[in-house]
Fold this protein.
Amino acid sequence: MNSRQKNRIKDRAFKYLGIFSTSIGLILLTVFIGSIIKDGIGRIDWDFLTNLPSRKAEKAGILTALAGSVWLLVMTAIVSIPLGVAAAIHLEEYSRKTRWSSFLEINITNLAGVPSVIYGILGLQIFVRTMRFGGSLLAGAFTLALLILPIIIVTTREAIKAVPSSIKEASYGLGATKWQTIRHQVLPAAGGSIATGIILALSRAIGETAPVIIIGALAYVAFVPQSPTDEFTVLPIQIFNWVSRPDHAFVVNAAAGIIVLLAVTFMMNGIAVYLRHRWQNKVNW
Amino acid sequence: MEEIIEIEKTVTSEKHRAEQPADAKHTENPVRPKLETRGVNVFYGDNQVITDVSITMKEKSVTALIGPSGCGKSTFLRLFNRMNDYIKVFRKEGDICIDGKDIYSPSVHVEDLRKMVGMVFQKPNPFPKTIYENVAYGLRIQGVNDKNILDEAVEQSLKSAALWNEVRSNLKKSALALSGGQQQRLCIARALAVNPSILLMDEPASALDPIATAKIEELIHRLKEDYTIVIVTHNMQQAGRVSDMTAFFYLGKLIEYTETKKLFTSPENEMTENYITGRFG
């Protein structure tokens, strides 16, 4: 067997290995989603989406948790987007390369890998206790914002880096200040990727359970939150709650809840893909 | 800021220029050079890329900077609008003056300097915006938002850059849809729109085909009437065609600087002769 044949066999072997690896992920996901849908789809109707929680499984709805998740999501976005994007702009465009800045950079990257439960403990101490937000949406939003800030910073920096320097030079060459160049050239050009990163970070936030349990959102909440200082619960916690009940009807509820959560996450990822696609068509070097 | 305003006054103020016809532009003392460097050294870290360059350039002339790759001619060009400031290890010694004023003095705001010194880059680099917005950008960032003023400036600049007739009916189209040659003329129009008195061109035709190149060269000929132009080029025929004066750089040193005709017909330095006859470079 000559080396050309060997190479061809290796090539083919690697191809099948790739197909095998990909299909494992796909199969598991399909089985998982399939069984959830089989269990829960029959339970999803308008009442399920609009009913408050109840001790009776068939009357219990997901409205409180859904509304809590949406509230939390919006508030987390409000806190984390400006902070994260501004920090990324600073690190990428303004800060000088010093030991301090590389120390910061390494830490931000590391923070993205810290387990979320640690953020929960941090949030409990700072926001719930020290700042006396209690188990409110405010405490939850700040905690989740901390959790996703590193992700937003890292993805935004990558997006900014990808803007060709020729565009920045052109802008500077016309007498633009740094901020004008960032505002009018860099951010519009990087916007698609930044938005994608933010949405993916937020869709991680919406699925987080551990930190919100720690700051106290596990409590039974009977009503839809009306303001940022209200107590709240979120979809993953409601699901967790239902799964841990002995009554099988609640497990069905949990499956239906998972479908709702998945739908929200898929929708957000869809928006991310759409934004990236649209921006790419608009900005095209 | 103060200093730049003073420079502007000696040239003629921005407003004044806008009101006056083209021939009233830049009324200047003919003795004083427009651009001048004295004993300029440039370092990137420990690496010296320009050594003791002193040169003067007259107003409304075209000066070509030629030399083999890596001879420092682009770096030298970028000294005049302080584009090297963004390179972290950049350091310079010596004076670089426009209208007799040191442009590296702390009282000079680099943004004001660049309104006076336009630049055209090697690769056409239009913004991913409409043709109109590309040209209007320089004025918009100065806070000009009056539609009439912008319309007028866009039209004038595109006419000066010999692009108006080709794009007048689709100013709202993306600049990226233009051909390479058109994009480069758009970049020239964009630079002209902020009313500079100096134009720096860094191999403006090197990415273009011969026809587009001819158009750019023709344009340089016409722009010379109103602007002081410094052009870096790899193409010696081009230097011969467009410039009044030519400076030959080699390994960061200014080897020979004289009238273009003289440099190409009877160079004084042997190295210059070897370069222009194609024996190295």
